[in-house]
């Protein structure tokens, strides 16, 4: 970040004999200090929010568990009377929500940066719908009977295959510009959607159909520690890897020509980041189905609060994305209990109004 | 010849795009300490040539060298430490402050796992001041005018601290005062030993601030030389299709070009 040696705003001004360029407006150094304080405060709030979300989500359910018991159990004390519920049912589900939310938040932020488009979301290149094709095929064909690992592994492979397909088509045109990748992604999304529809229409029985609908909406029912392991490892590794490219992402926001001029190996770094985003999205979709709006709304929210700098945006999107999905999942379980909503339905219910609010609050829209 | 070792050289560069030859057989060299103005009518291939000179586009034929070494041999970060390039497009639609953007000029100097150092912030401050953008430092680039954004882009290029500077229409969106300011900045950089190439449209300004001019037309380099040799009434008629009077401007000591009329007869066949 910036050094204290250059915070003196007045030192930056032109000479007094140069009225046009004048001295820098007073308080510009103060602006930067204020921004830094804002970032630190925001992350303190994010961290508290995340911890509170986890504790509340683990505590609430058909059986109410006192917060203190929850904290003890989460910290590893398995002597409490609710330890079994927490360990085998609540905690895995909450942790899956946390990792999925974090992964989708970061993946969305990366996609929005690479496409320089605030409407980009994790599935924009067909990664989610690629996962859907594989998952629906597994459900409809009955392959899921072979083990609980079939669906997530299939979905993950489907997600990465979609990205490979995007690059294969781009290679045939010998054109790797971001606009071309986006157009290919749109085409693949439509194609995968059609394949899924065809499989759904011809589903052999209602049981399979119900499974498909459930998966396509995104849900966290009955998640186990196996699911936690499946999403945690790729999510942690890929988020850590993405964090090594925060400055490249910042420069790439200026556009391809400027990024190249600044010494960013645009084509190579874009490829690395698209793979990492696909791993994040694929890992999330694999254990939770297609959960919308987290990857779109959360990066927006953080950008609005703290600006576009990815050194701040990416960790912020991870923390808030995790907290958001934990709370959304809690609402899904509790809101109309015993009638449950799917997690993906709740994220859309919450995400759509939040997104509209953000759109209306955008400075440029207001000015226009 | 030794001088060109410090600067930028193009050797028989050609660029084909979709079967069309956009740049054809262009050779030029800009030694350190010199400002070369690249001029020519719209569609002459200036921007394409400049992209090749800057190493962000690969030529179909020929080669470009920076400091004596082929530009294609450098990885992007190595290239950005030797040559700074300011593209024409100044659109910036994310809420960075001007200082954030100029600080990005240090990107190629800082390793992936290193933090920015105090020296990077100092160079950023200096570059902002040199470009005359210091008063914009804390403003969001989305709130700046096109001309102000151009100053920020110039500052970012200066923050790269390179030996070569390549600029595509650096004064296009600027008001008169800022035009003069930027051109003076370019002269100062040349005085420090930098090799500077700039695409310019105002021919009088080009004549006044450049050591040499390179005139392009239809992808080819028509002529290169001191302004007075390049900007003659004859070339203005032949290349720009304009009847003009060129004489000495007593005030600036440079050339004065008075365009009188569009000269249809003088427009070369391929432009009709």
What topology does this entry show?
The complex is a heterodimer of chains A (368) and B (272).
Chain A: H1 28-59, H2 67-74, H3 83-114, H4 127-141, H5 150-172, H6 178-201, H7 206-217, H8 225-243, H9 246-252, H10 256-261, H11 266-288, H12 294-306, H13 310-334, H14 343-361, H15 363-367
Helix pairs in contact in A: 1-2, 1-3, 1-13, 2-3, 3-8, 3-11, 3-12, 3-13, 4-5, 4-6, 4-7, 4-11, 5-6, 5-11, 8-11, 12-13, 12-14, 13-14
Chain B: E1 8-17, E2 20-30, E3 35-39, H1 46-53, E4 61-66, E5 69-70, H2 76-82, E6 83-86, H3 98-103, H4 118-130, H5 146-159, E7 164-168, H6 176-191, E8 195-199, H7 203-209, E9 212-217, E10 220-225, H8 227-230, H9 233-240, E11 242-248, E12 255-262
Parallel strand pairs in B: 3-8, 3-9, 6-7, 7-8
Antiparallel strand pairs in B: 1-2, 1-4, 4-5, 9-10, 11-12
Helix pairs in contact in B: 4-5
